[in-house]
UniProtKB/TrEMBL annotation:
Pathway: Amino-acid biosynthesis; L-cysteine biosynthesis; L-cysteine from L-serine: step 1/2. This is Serine acetyltransferase. InterPro entries: Hexapep, Hexapep_transf_CS, LbH_SAT, Ser_AcTrfase_N, Ser_AcTrfase_N_sf, Ser_O-AcTrfase, Serine_acetyltransferase, Trimer_LpxA-like_sf. It holds the Pfam family SATase_N. Keywords: Acyltransferase, Amino-acid biosynthesis, Repeat, Transferase. SUPFAM superfamilies: Trimeric LpxA-like enzymes (SSF51161). Residues 14-118 form the Serine acetyltransferase N-terminal domain. The keyword DNA damage does not apply. Belongs to the transferase hexapeptide repeat family. GO terms for cellular component: cytoplasm. One of its GO terms (biological process) is cysteine biosynthetic process from serine. GO terms for molecular function: serine O-acetyltransferase activity. It catalyses: L-serine + acetyl-CoA = O-acetyl-L-serine + CoA.
Length: 269
């Protein structure tokens, strides 16, 4: 940890809040003490806690927890933007998910948050050219969390994946900042071509449960994709699309649909 990171950890209000919540949780349910101490209270910073959590989740007989912690610690030390993104994702979940009442919850319990943090380490490895190790991360993330994100995919900050079951994001997909998506979303290709073949999702887009966005198409910023839709054509910014195949059915309904999480398609949308 650099001197700057050490200073930040000592005055980090988010981490202070998380540890306060952890102590309170242990008081309320002592049976959770072992888990909460191992995941939160034994650590001095958010990145150390995340390193432990990712390693504990992804370890197997093929790759020990000790080795995985070293890999994640190295990634966080080399690229502080990974931790910055983790903080933005944590705030996104806390702000947008009505089932999230404490900052502690995503770190301990929410597989969408945990999966995206593990993906970020895999993406770091991919950019370094460590392809086999990044594929190992992809494999374990898929096996443990049911979330299959190619390590080459580019994903921004402030991401909230609610429930996070059966998420698929392809190799050349790009996801902007402050995007929200629900379970069973696919950002996929349409054939066997090996070039740029996956969707480009703009900032602030809301993608409903079960939606499929296929091909090298652009979804304009702050748009909404209704649950169960199949999107095959580019969508302008600030629109709502629905159907199979999806068509524009109205405006986005608000300036930041990914933040409001309003998925109701109405005449006013």
């Amino acid at each position: 940890m650099t001197q700057t990171q050490t200073i930040l950890a000592s005055v980090d209000p988010a981490w202070d809040q998380i540890t306060t919540e952890a102590h309170e949780a242990v008081k309320q349910q002592p049976l959770m003490g072992g888990l909460i101490h191992a995941c939160i209270l034994h650590h001095t910073s958010l990145e150390k806690a995340l390193s432990y959590r990712i390693a504990a989740k992804l370890c197997s007989n093929e790759m020990s927890m000790v080795i995985l912690r070293e890999i994640v610690d190295q990634a966080y030390g080399d690229d502080p933007s990974l931790v910055e993104a983790a903080r933005a994702d944590l705030v996104a979940v806390y702000d947008r998910d009505p089932a999230c009442h404490r900052l502690l919850q995503p770190i301990l319990y929410f597989k969408g948050y945990q999966a995206i943090q593990a993906y970020r380490v895999g993406h770091y490895l991919w950019k370094k050219g460590d392809y086999d190790l990044s594929y190992f991360f992809q494999m374990r993330i898929s096996e443990i969390f049911g979330v299959d994100i190619h390590p080459a995919a580019q994903i921004g900050r402030g991401i909230m994946i609610d429930h996070a079951h059966s998420i698929v994001i392809g190799e050349t997909a790009v996801v902007g900042d402050n995007v929200s998506m629900l379970h069973s979303v696919t950002l996929g290709g349409t054939g066997k071509e090996e070039e740029d073949r996956h969707p480009k999702i703009g900032d602030g887009v809301l993608i409903g449960a079960g939606a499929k966005v296929l091909g090298n198409i652009t979804i304009g910023e702050c748009s909404r994709i209704a649950a169960g839709s199949v999107v095959l054509q580019e969508i302008p910014r600030c629109k709502t699309v629905a159907g199979v195949p999806a068509k524009i059915v109205g405006e986005a309904g608000c300036s930041q649909p990914a933040l409001s999480m309003n998925q109701v398609v109405s005449k006013q949308s």
